[in-house]
From TrEMBL:
This is FAD dependent oxidoreductase domain-containing protein. Residues 94-411 form the FAD dependent oxidoreductase domain. GO terms for molecular function: sarcosine dehydrogenase activity. Coiled coil: none annotated. One of its GO terms (biological process) is sarcosine catabolic process.
């Protein structure tokens, strides 16, 4: 069994060319033995060559477990412990990505794009758990710096080609965005700020422009423009589906050789001392085995400090309760751009014929210590915080006054002191 699997591994290694015919013959003989011994491989060797070899090995390990012999139904995850122990007991991976949200999946994908495929993503629960599963999925290239724009533009281009690469739709809808400012709360100064912002973004390549109120009315008839003094229209981007994006990103990375293991929380990270007195990652311990590596990407968001505490590091990260509502159907909303009201600190997007109204709370509720086991958890909506913002959005889109609310979503979201990502 082991010999057959190692031959299969070699056959799937793109570097093997000259010995392929010899290896195929050897694998056929091994397959004959495995078919009798395991009674589980019912595919031809040609089919097996198209299947990741570690999937076959994991299923074999699962069948050797006591539970399997007792007749229990086992999926791929049942064999992960033996799989990790065998695969990484004496080997290494180049990078371990911790966290199966959109950042972790994107990290795995981009590593593969760079040719780094000896990688593994570890997710304590299921992909999208944590924050990604309930995020609103907004996608705009309008940033505040050259780096910010570059990251956003790279993401948009990735989403545009993802379905072609993987067959999985990321749910990208390029309905664009409109950013509005108003004289409400004495914010008239924003008109000049918008002009500078647009000039800077256009230099970087962003497809944006200042538009007039009549143009806004043509673009978004539902908006009350009585107090608006500045409008930016971003023609590219709009919104996407986080779950479909995660599936597409991991599917492509796995085709290149990367691995994804779910229900596998990290329990410890071991380090060794370098010659210069620093520390370097040496091992990642999980509930299903130990992985040797010198690089870890912490993509766990609000749970980031649980991971960094294993090596004595604290991240400048604070989690808050962050929310939005989904309304009943809104006539005329379908196809409208994403609306971002910077004075009200709110956004509105179409979701089918419903509206998703999200809030950036001026006095958010901090989460002192997020629970470790809170993968798909939500909180109650505090209308004392969200109510005033919601009222301002109703003033901006008057038709919402007679539209009911179907559901409320308040989940954990992490923020840094500068409202941007922590890298490095």
């Amino acid at each position: 069994m082991y010999l057959g699997l190692k031959v299969l591994q070699e056959l799937q290694d793109s570097r093997v060319t000259a010995r392929k015919s010899e290896l195929q013959d050897l694998f056929q003989r091994c397959h004959n033995f495995m078919s009798v011994a395991c009674c589980e491989i019912k595919k031809s060797w040609k089919d097996l060559l198209c299947e990741p070899w570690y999937h076959v090995e994991a299923r074999y390990a699962a069948r050797q477990s006591p539970a399997a012999s007792a007749g229990e139904d086992h999926q791929f995850s049942a064999g992960i412990s033996s799989y990790l122990h065998h695969l990484y007991g004496s080997g290494e991976v180049d990078v371990v990505v911790v966290g199966g949200g959109v950042l972790g999946c994107s990290s795995l994908y981009h590593l593969a794009k760079l040719g780094v495929t000896n990688t593994i993503l570890l997710e304590a629960h299921e992909l999208t758990a944590g924050t990604t599963w309930h995020t609103a999925g907004l996608m705009s290239t309008m940033g505040r710096s050259e780096t910010d724009y570059s990251l956003r533009n790279t993401t948009l281009n990735m989403l545009r080609r993802l379905e072609e690469e993987t067959g999985v739709s990321p749910g990208l809808i390029e309905n664009g965005s409109v950013y509005i400012s108003s004289t409400r709360k004495g914010q008239a100064v924003r008109k000049d700020e918008f002009a500078r912002w647009v000039t800077f973004m256009r230099v970087l390549g962003c497809e944006c422009e200042l538009i007039t109120l009549s143009q806004l009315k043509d673009l978004y008839p539902l908006v009350d423009t009585s107090d608006i003094n500045a409008v930016v229209h971003v023609r590219e981007g709009g919104q996407m589906d986080p779950a479909g994006t995660c599936e597409g990103l991991t599917r492509w990375a796995m085709k290149q050789g990367a691995r994804v293991v779910k229900c596998c929380p990290v329990t410890d990270i071991r380090t060794t001392e370098t010659l210069l007195g620093g520390r370097r990652v040496s091992e990642v311990h999980t509930n299903q085995g130990v992985i040797k590596t010198n690089a870890v990407i912490n993509a766990t968001g609000s749970w980031g400090n649980y991971i960094t505490s294993m090596v004595g590091v604290t991240l400048p990260l604070q989690s808050f309760r962050h929310g939005y509502v989904v309304t009943e159907g809104v006539e005329g909303l379908l196809g409208m751009p994403v609306l971002r009201d910077l004075v009200s600190s709110a956004y509105l997007k179409a979701q089918g014929d419903s509206a998703v109204i999200g809030y950036f709370e001026p006095n958010p509720e901090p989460i002192d210590q997020i629970r470790r086991n809170f993968p798909f958890g939500l909180y109650e909506m505090n209308w004392d915080i969200y109510g005033p913002i919601h009222e301002q959005i109703i003033q901006r889109i008057p038709i919402l006054e007679n539209v009911g609310i179907k559901s409320t979503i308040v989940g954990p979201e992490s923020f840094t002191p500068r409202w941007s990502g922590n890298y490095g």
